[in-house]
């Protein structure tokens, strides 16, 4: 048991050493906050701070988050909420002194009104970003107002608590922003790159598995079991994580010198495009596990074209990941030229091999006619002996249908083309992200990326027009 815990603790720190650094910073911050209890002097500005050390310690434990953006968000919200709560208490105290109604009744009425109003405001979508500040405002207002009713001189108490809370916030912001900071924006950026690379591996491995390509064995060996599902699921389940990191990153200072506008919401949009692309890859992977499969002889006719198309899709995703890693634009012409050719080759192969479908239909027609004749001459007793379980009978019936050999591949090819179509939207969102984040410009002869005018490539619409257009 102890050995398992030791291994778990070691792996946790090894996966992300920043966790160890954050733990040390929290311990150091708590030590600094606790040391305020040594300030027991009665002279300003230390008067009363030692007795309110608990508030500084609570502030440190609550505020100090893993990333700088989360800490800055909580810290500023706590300071603003505390100040507004104190100011409102002073206003209520001033008004209660000039009201004919009893003070207790007036205080109860104000607590109800402002508490209900502040809680209702939290439901407004634009206030969600400041939700923690609203909570602090409600708590500060209620606690100080009640304490002011029970204690005669609350001014010094409020002042001392505010000072200790401010000291706790200062400790958190100092350690989070200046001592080995962890930026949510960098985490979001790296997470997007990882998702692109994971999808690139999944596309190529999925098509390689479908065609049983031995040449793809190296790629498949690099990926653990069910890695295609794992890579796609990570992308599909990343919406809440992306939105949270984008929210925290919006509070962080713009430490990228070329970034004139916060691109974090564009990262969220780019993540949405990746998720739509990931849904298609998951469906494509599902074709590997269908009950009715296209014979290898039919698959081999389109193996080269589909494999090449998957390789080009993977190359586009890898190029997008590299351009994002280097914070540079990409050349749409360069990354799409080979993809266009691969689509043309697959289109030509599909058109030239349409005879396979008619051959498949003829074989199924003869099989159905023989089966029908046999069933007509068979006795009910023999039928009951050879029918087999219901699920097996269903598979035999489906297998005898027309085009049953070609339909599974048609579904696979259709999903592969849909993936290319959705890749077009991914490229557009990547271009917009590069424009907003001011990625580096392209220079001929090096690896930096080009800034292109926004033009819709429409890969699939160009080479696979809708029916009726010819």
From TrEMBL:
Pfam families: ALMT (PF11744). Its main location: membrane. The chain crosses the membrane at residues 20-40, 52-69, 75-92, 104-124, 130-150, 162-183. Residues 368-392 are annotated as: Disordered. Keywords: Ion channel, Ion transport, Membrane, Transmembrane, Transmembrane helix, Transport. Residues 368-381 have a biased composition (Polar residues). It is found in: Membrane. GO terms for cellular component: plant-type vacuole membrane. It is a multi-pass membrane protein. InterPro entries: ALMT. It comes from the Eukaryota. One of its GO terms (biological process) is monoatomic ion transmembrane transport. PANTHER family: ALUMINUM-ACTIVATED MALATE TRANSPORTER 10 (PTHR31086). Belongs to the aromatic acid exporter (TC 2.A.85) family. This is Aluminum-activated malate transporter.
């Amino acid at each position: 048991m102890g050995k398992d815990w030791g291994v778990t603790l070691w792996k946790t720190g090894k996966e992300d050493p920043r966790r160890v650094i954050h733990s040390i910073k929290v311990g150091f911050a708590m030590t600094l906050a606790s040391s305020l209890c040594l300030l027991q002097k009665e002279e300003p500005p230390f008067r009363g701070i030692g007795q309110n050390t608990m508030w500084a310690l609570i502030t440190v434990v609550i505020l100090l988050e893993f990333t700088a953006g989360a800490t800055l968000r909580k810290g500023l919200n706590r300071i603003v909420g505390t100040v507004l709560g104190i100011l409102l208490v002073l206003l209520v105290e001033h008004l209660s002194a000039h009201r004919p109604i009893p003070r207790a009744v007036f205080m109860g009425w104000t607590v109800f009104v402002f508490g209900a109003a502040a809680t209702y405001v939290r439901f407004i979508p634009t206030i969600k970003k400041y939700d923690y500040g609203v909570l602090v405002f409600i708590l500060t207002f209620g606690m100080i107002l009640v304490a002011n009713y029970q204690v005669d001189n609350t001014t010094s108490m409020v002042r001392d608590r505010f000072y200790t809370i401010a000291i706790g916030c200062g400790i958190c912001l100092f350690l989070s922003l200046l001592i080995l900071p962890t930026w949510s924006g960098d985490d979001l950026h790296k997470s997007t790159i990882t998702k692109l690379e994971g999808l690139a591996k999944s596309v190529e491995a999925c098509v390689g598995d479908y065609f049983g390509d031995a040449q793809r064995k190296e790629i498949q060996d690099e990926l653990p079991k069910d890695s295609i599902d794992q890579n796609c699921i990570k992308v599909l389940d990343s919406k809440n994580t992306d939105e949270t990191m984008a929210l925290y990153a919006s509070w962080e200072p713009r430490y990228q010198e070329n970034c004139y506008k916060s691109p974090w919401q564009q990262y969220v949009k780019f993540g949405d495009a990746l998720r739509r692309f990931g849904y298609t890859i998951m469906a494509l992977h599902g074709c590997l596990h269908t009950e009715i499969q296209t014979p290898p002889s039919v698959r081999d006719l389109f193996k080269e074209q589909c494999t090449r198309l998957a390789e080009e899709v993977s190359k586009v995703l890898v190029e997008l990941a590299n351009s994002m890693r280097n914070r540079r634009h990409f050349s749409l012409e360069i990354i799409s030229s080979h993809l266009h050719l691969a689509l043309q080759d697959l289109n030509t192969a599909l058109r030239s091999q349409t005879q396979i479908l008619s051959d498949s239909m003829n074989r199924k027609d003869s099989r159905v006619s023989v089966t029908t004749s046999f069933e007509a001459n068979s006795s009910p007793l023999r039928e009951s002996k050879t029918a087999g379980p219901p699920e097996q009978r269903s598979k035999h019936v489906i297998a005898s249908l027309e085009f049953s050999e070609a339909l599974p591949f048609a579904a696979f090819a259709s999903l592969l083309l849909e993936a290319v179509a959705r890749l077009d939207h991914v490229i557009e969102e990547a271009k917009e992200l590069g424009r907003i984040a001011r990625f580096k410009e392209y220079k001929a002869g090096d690896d930096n990326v080009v800034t292109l005018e926004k033009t819709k490539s429409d890969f699939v619409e160009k080479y696979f027009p809708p029916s009726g257009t010819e």
